[in-house]
Write a structure and sequence with these properties.
It is a single chain. By secondary structure, the protein is mostly helical. The chain is 84% helix and 0% strand. It has a single domain, classed as HPT domain (Four Helix Bundle (Hemerythrin (Met), subunit A)). Helix 2 packs antiparallel against helix 3, helix 3 packs antiparallel against helix 4 and helix 4 runs antiparallel to helix 5. The longest helix is centred in the C-terminal third of the chain and has 29 residues.
């Protein structure tokens, strides 16, 4: 079963139908998520469960608002790992999340090119 990586309709709804704003929202999401991933990497060393959960919760919500469906699902799973204190599981999921962000970028580019024709 192919899982939908990105739902452009959700992003366009968040951007009130404005393609330029949608592109900017997407870029903000990617940059913010990358920053949060770096912070979480450092927080894993100190095992700061509260801050790790806060960052992954924010990623989860933002992913949902732009239609990044696989990222949202992974962030949800990571949030559960953070709450339970499973730092090794969380670290493994972070690697998967980085790959999903790459797939998301590709899906975004494909959907945006399709929509601009």
């Amino acid at each position: 079963m192919d899982e939908l990586i990105f739902d452009i309709e959700i992003l366009m709804t968040s951007a009130d139908g404005d393609r330029l704003w949608a592109e900017e929202l997407f870029d903000i999401f990617i940059n913010d998520t990358q920053d949060r991933m770096e912070k979480m990497g450092s927080l894993l060393e100190s095992r700061d469960r509260t801050e790790i959960r806060r960052h992954i919760h924010t990623i989860k919500g933002a992913a949902g608002s732009i239609g990044a469906l696989t990222v949202k699902r992974s962030a949800y799973e990571m949030e559960l790992l953070a709450v339970s204190g499973d730092y090794e599981g969380f670290r493994s999921k972070m690697i998967m999340l980085k790959n999903e962000l790459d797939m998301l970028r590709s899906a975004f580019e494909t959907e945006f090119r399709k929509g601009s024709k």
